[in-house]
Write the structure tokens for this entry.
Amino acid sequence: MSQTAAIPAERVTAAILVIGDEILSGRTQDTNTSYIARFLAALGIDLCEARVVPDIEKEIVDALNAMRARYTYVFTTGGIGPTHDDITFESVAAAFGVGCYHHPEAMAAMAARYKPGEFNDARKRMAYIPVGAELVQNSVSTAPGVHIGNVFVMAGVPVIMRAMMDAIEPRLKRGAVVHAATIQTTLPEGRLAEGLGAIQRDNKTVAIGSYPFYREGGNGVQLVARGRNPDEVEAAARQIEAMLRALGSEGTRVTV
Amino acid sequence: MSQTAAIPAERVTAAILVIGDEILSGRTQDTNTSYIARFLAALGIDLCEARVVPDIEKEIVDALNAMRARYTYVFTTGGIGPTHDDITFESVAAAFGVGCYHHPEAMAAMAARYKPGEFNDARKRMAYIPVGAELVQNSVSTAPGVHIGNVFVMAGVPVIMRAMMDAIEPRLKRGAVVHAATIQTTLPEGRLAEGLGAIQRDNKTVAIGSYPFYREGGNGVQLVARGRNPDEVEAAARQIEAMLRALGSEGTRVTV
């Protein structure tokens, strides 16, 4: 942790738009957001916001237009399958003010995947993409995602979304990676809050978070220092450890 | 499923605002959204949107003001502990244009919880709530949530959030509960999409969703019919089963 990282001047930001009634009904537990969050963090891209909207075109369009104007990238998940409730490509096209068309390369790749007669109209919808979009390869099941402007449109099925993120990665600008140090303690937050606040005030380039947990086998708190300069993160972490020691507790470094 | 439900005229809607850097960094997997979604669904309240924002006052204020103007209720999670990164009460107060004060009842309840000298300034912050707010009881760890206007402010720690939802439940207007029937098949979506779309067009008061899954032991699709009238849901479900049968597959009713 002793090297001094060269920190790119430009911050690279992102938002996630999760599209799907099944998340809002509680039927499906979204796990894509946390996967994408960690994926982007490893590239130094700051995830700044996430939203979940239903399968309603106006909701998708409004959220996408708000987010794409504000962040370097927007990643959407869900709604690109062959059924009537899959309306993401049309909605993204509407947000960009363009139409959709059957993309020749996507049509050819999908036609090659199916037996004669099986590449029906519903399946062809998965190749009906916004004009001006580029394809995002799907190494799992062929039907592509797309990339238009600063928006990446991915499947909702996690195994396919992950394959698409791998395909997208080389196209992304990178930022300075955030370094984190995590110290776990059994002291309650209320006893360490004053000292922690003072350390935050002394370390303005490091974001210090306090996350209590309630688990079988004992409660505790994880104190996390995050920042782009590893030396500054380490200095803040040592101040946290010294503060805990002064309160009569040895903090434990943990990897999360 | 043969009774005809009396359907309240007024739709009751909700949004969730998840507050916390730890969700956007990928450190913590949010599970509160799906819990609240199912909790509200059981009361006939439609969850229409969810957002995750960082621990930044302006972001919290802007999202909260957008959501509280639009939905019957807004539920927030996170940021009400004693540490410096817990800024939700102040941010909610700013959204409503009010100040915060040490609520006497919350102060008394918390003072009774701690030993003499342990109810320090950091802990008193957890009783420093927006003017005009009512308390939401916390049966786990005393420090309250609050209710102001149409906004309910809850803890982020799941066990505490759940206790707060229980305390909130009697205050909520209820809507007509959505009934769902789920039929599972091994047919691929591309083969059933045309028939499913026709059933959706014939059943305008029922929302039909198609959710493919990739699991150990076999892939498949769950077809879900959802609506406020159970007879209409059942009629749509039977049409889906008949459609699958015509394609040579027996659908299986499942409970999710």
Remarks:
- Chain A touches chain B through 68 residues (CB under 8 Å).
- The radius of gyration of chain A is 22 Å.
